[in-house]
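Branched-chain amino acid transport system permease protein
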Amino acid sequence: MFAYLLNLSVLICVNAILAMTLNFLMGYAGIFSLAHAVFFGVGAYTAAFVSMHISDSLFVCTAAAMILSAGLSLALALPALRVRGEYFVAASLGLQMLAVTVFSEWRSVTGGLGGITNIPAVKVFGVAIETANGFFALALGFLVAVGLVLTVLVRSSFGRNLQAIRDSESAALALGKNVAAIKTLSVVVAAALAATAGVVYTFYLSFINVEGFTLDLSVLLMAMVIIGGTGSLFGPVVGAALLMLLPAALSFVPGLPQAEVGLVQQAVYGLVMVLLMIYRPGGIVGAGKRRLSTKGAQ
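Structure:
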């Protein structure tokens, strides 16, 4: 049972990193992306390729994953963010579909539908990480590091500019802000940080394939952000934990066939999101923050 909970904890950390970085776009920049799983996948495949052919150092693999993911996001953001927000949604959806095809067909790099197996253990200062406890510490460390980076960015002048653009692009332009550059940089930062989740995921499983980086994951990450609370640093972590614990809880429901767990899970996701939109449109943490601020104003 302890091993199961440890495994679940690692996966929660991975998804929390992805949800936090997507929230940086959605909650603070007002940019809705359906391609976040792509940057997760690029980070994962890059880490696997680098560890098998260049270096098994965690720092080298992470740097390569972040650089490549950031470069890909730049290619998406530069043309798409020069127009209205809905065009970025369409462009990100196109990138997601294209990436799945590339992941499936570029067999020499991604292993095709069969994926990449026997990924070597990653090393930190020459010490290999091979135990579940070690990977939990690694995942938690990455989660804390990403959280700290996002906290600093959100509270900096860059974060304030980003939120000003989210609230009113016209007003930001009138104040002389370079809206396109600020929004593009936010996409690059989010993609680079999302790649770190792919690094942890790759070495933890020692196997990756395209099934882990599809549109379904991008939609699920968006659900995590909305349920937890957009525009709050801790909300996406809550959303990720809830949506990862839900299927685990459903698997223990007596009388529920395992084949039906996925269908019930989707129905519960939909119901939860509908109820939140009606009663707590700011999400679990977001709604709580608004109540506190309202009381403070009174």
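The longest strand covers residues 123-124.
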